[in-house]
Amino acid sequence: MHADSARFPDNVTAARRDPMLLGALQRLQRDARAGRAEVIARLPEFEALRDAAREIRNGALANLAANLERFEENVIANGGAVHWCRDAAEAGAAVTRICREAGARTVAKGKSMVSEEIALNAALLGAGFDVVETDLGEYVLQLRDETPSHIVIPAIHLTKDQFAETFRDAHDALPEDRSLEEARAITDEARGALRDVFLRADVGITGANFLIAETGSVVIVTNEGNGDLAQSLPRTHIVVTGIEKALGTVEEALTLVRVLARSATGQEISAYTTFATGARRADDAAGPEAFHVVLVDNGRSDLLGGPKREILRCIRCGACQTVCPVYGAVGGHAYGAVYAGPVGSVLTPALSGLETAKHLPEASSFCGACEAVCPVRIPLPRLLRLWRQDAFQAHLGPTALRWGLFAWSALTAWPGAYRAAGAIGGRVLRLLAMGRPRLARLPFAGKWTGGRDLPVPEGGTFVGQWHRRRGK
Amino acid sequence: MSAPRDDILGRIRAANPGPEVPVSPGPVPARGRGEASALRQRFFAGLDMAGVSHATVTSWPGVGAEIERFLAEAGPGGGLVASNDPMLEPCGLDRLPGLRRGAPEAGDGVSITGTVAGIAETGTLMVRSGPDIANALHFLPDTHVAVVDAARIVGAYEDAFALLRAGGAPLPRNVTLITGPSRSSDIERILQIGVHGPRTLHVVVCDAP
User: Which of A225, A231, A251 lies closest to B197 in CB terms?
Assistant: First the structure.
């Protein structure tokens, strides 16, 4: 797999030849669908909450500048600092500077997709800090030098045995004959190894699910408890997050909490929803003395001013990945991007440029499963279609497709010619098939049939059948 | 220092030429509304669903006795540490041998803390940090025993925040909604209880007249 969206077609071919990956994806899609349906059936207000969640996120985007200013004001009032960063380089530099000023050696990291987006680990390791991912999935990925393949289940592509094998290599001080057969044993080993990290870390880094303007709070929603240890034990707490996450009030966040876990993991609520407001108070028993929020733009303000603005409503639940038939067929790494699946196929062209990412908006059947589960009702297929239009206008598609589309659109202007061409086309295909139901190869479309068969049309054209049936 | 800030805010304002818009939170689900007795039943049902053991006592000194019983039965090893939350003062915790007060340490196996509220909606606890509570108490030891005042079992998350912010009090450094013990499904989606946070969460509800 290559972390490069331009390699998407090759990555897909490789993914389709990986039976372990395909098995994991099948299990994910089956179980997660059932889990979501079950938890939603227990909450009659769920659809009304989705409507409210959409409006809360729309309002947050409309009021974004004011929300961010109030958020900053309240963070400062509570003894914290806010750092504004236009891009990945500025954000990496800001976090590195804070770690240096804190005299840090060890940095304990909670799960953060924005930190993946800005390649934070590479920046911190390059500056000489010992950075350790502490989320169970992210930890094993860091040991394997891999990236997350799902927003909320980052190591969904790995098997239990691959976890065990990685831990055997990494934890070489432990007895070699220990059993790592069970997920329990693997989890306990990670817990033991990371406990030391939490206790010796000088800096804890977390992401944020929401920022709250009226209080200056940062909200994280987690299950393992690592994000809470990372923001409670070290002397310094750094939050790395996108600018779009600022909401107005605590109550707005609570509505979003009600749709987030139900969409993400099929839980009523995640184990821990934590509000962090500023640094420790003068008389507090414990807690970080320094609190820094690193706000990352990285293309978001551009999206805000354009036709794909609605993607910024996203609350990163991963539901669109979990239900997407394309994601389910190829996995997250094939996308070669930080964010995979439908949300990623809208975000990645904005983050890394349409030329590199031009394949991703094509990787959709527009079946609408993503939009149907999105807790904030983002019209993902429509946004993907906008990227396809951009790609067409920028001449990024294959020339054959371009001419084909021109020919097709010209034909549609002449219904008679269109019908005749359709009838001829059908006959030619039937002739080529020589009685077989499917065509494995097609002249001028070898690439297309390289991955699939074309069913041979039966029974004449649609319009022909229409007239025949109406005549009866 | 101000260049990126002005840049970003300027671009946001250019994208949003209109005035600020009013925003309303969503509806509070019906399961977060009801009589005190119904809410209490729902709170217990939520704890059961989240894998939390619980016991109800009818006097504050009874809390210490119940925790003693729980510790003898569950038998978790390691040190025992409690917060200085005034809520725990009448709980008779002094009967617990070896109890320390303050922040948790690496060798501690059990923590005892109070709670701001119990929330019926999902069997959730609200806990906070403060001068009397080191936040890591809720996360570091293997076993967390949380004491809930039955009079502070509320319906919805919003109600718990209303209790916490009564009289316009600012938010403490940390406030957490806890629902069940720590968990992960990162390995082949097999649910594991107890990853970095507690493996066991035991709730003692005090329903004192």
Answer: A225
Complex ipTM:
0.98
Q: Residues of B with CB below 8 A from A91's CB? A: none
SS (H, E, C) A291-327: EEEEEECCCHHHHHCCCCHHHHHCCCCCHHHHHCHHH
User: Counting one residue from A and one from B, how many pairs have CB atoms under 8 Å apart?
Assistant: 261
Note the pLDDT of residue B13.
Answer: 97
Using the beta-carbon criterion (under 8 Å), do B173 and A276 form an inter-chain contact?
yes
Domain boundaries, chain A: 43-298, 400-471
The answer as to whether B10 is a domain residue is no
Q: Note the pLDDT tens digit of each residue in A109-135.
A: 999 999 999 999 999 999 999 999 999
Q: In chain A, which residue's Cα lies nearest the Cα of B12?
A: A301
Q: Which residues 391-430 of A have a C-beta within 8 angstroms of B?
A: none
CATH number for the domain that contains residue B101:
3.40.50.10420
Q: Quick one: CA torsion of A141, A144, A146, A147, rounded to 10 degrees?
A: 10
Least Cα separation, residue A256 to chain B (angstroms) = 8
- What span, in angstroms and rounded, lies between the C-alpha atoms of A399 and A405? 10
Residues of chain B with pLDDT under 50: 1
Helices A250-264 and A19-41: angle between axes, nearest 10 degrees: 130
- The pTM of the full predicted model, rounded to 2 decimals, is 0.95
C-beta atoms of A225 and B182 within 8 A: yes
CATH topology assigned to domain A43-298: Rossmann fold (3.40.50)
Q: How far is residue A149 CA from its own chain's centroid? A: 8
Rounded to a whole number of angstroms, the distance from the CA of A448 to the nearest CA of chain B is 34
The H helix count followed by the E strand count for chain A is 23, 12
Q: Is A190 on the interface with B (CB under 8 A)?
A: yes
The number of folded domains in chain B is 1
